Predict the structure.
Amino acid sequence: MGIPMVANAAEGNQDVFQERMYLYSKMEALTQIPWYYYAAIDQYERSIRRARKDIPKETGLIGIYIKPEVWAGALNPNSNDTNPHSIQLFGGIGLDGNGDGVADQTNDEDILFAMSEQILAYGSDPDNLKIGLWNYYKRDKSVSLIMGIAKIYSTYGTLDLDKHAFPVPLGYNHSYKNTWGDARGWGGRRMHEGTDIFASYGTPVRATSYGVIEMKGWNRFGGWRIGIRDVNNTYHYFAHLNGFAKDIAIGQVVEPGTIIGSVGSSGYGPPGTAGKFPPHLHYGMYKDNGFTEWSFDPYPHLRAWERAERKAKKR
Ligand SMILES: [Zn+2]
């Protein structure tokens, strides 16, 4: 069932979530690292892997990718070595996690166990895990993204967090067109990187996914804005807000439909500037590939979420 398994994994169905959760829990029992850290590392790497072409596609349930030369050791003449002793001798990080005597770089449990040894070097409490993660990834952003995903998973206690909401309640008048790539626009970061949803002042603005508030504040072009990172490592950007919802703070976990602010026309000047264009929500989506971040067109997603919500309401 190798091929259907991968197809299912891409869709993230219940069976796959269950099987992954079983693996994470098994590792938690073995290493004392809570399951949601395994889930977060795995999910972070899966998102990177799917965003890049230079990493082979995953074959099992686990998305973590360890390069053969890192697994087997840089000087190991056999980069596919599965012998835990020679791997150790050559300084590889590959380990036997399921007790079959083989350190198989394609085995989910072996991969998770090898990863746990890398990040456990300083201890299993959050601060020490952060140091372990930094030593492994050598990138601050990777560490904060993984810690953020872990927080979402631990808050909800499930891996099934792919639900979405349209950013404006459907009962409020709103309109939007596909303006992707237009040179002009109100408050994209560079060119127009997003979709403008026109609505009246004060219309509630809602989180579109499960996620963590990563950014909140003023920007000369974007005005009052909020950024939310979801478990797929997608960054959702909300700009030109009239104001923020009470109690919304950086680091806070939100879910689809959480009210984060309201529609406004802020931006294009020093903090507080508003009214230089009609009120609307600028909504952008960004993807991180482990090195850099780029924007992609949110329009088809907005249409799909709006459709799904209308359908659910009719039922
Ligand atoms: Zn815009």
Residues 2-66+105-156 form one domain. Residues 47 and 257 are 23 Å apart (CA to CA). The longest helix spans residues 14-31. The chain has a mean pLDDT of 91.
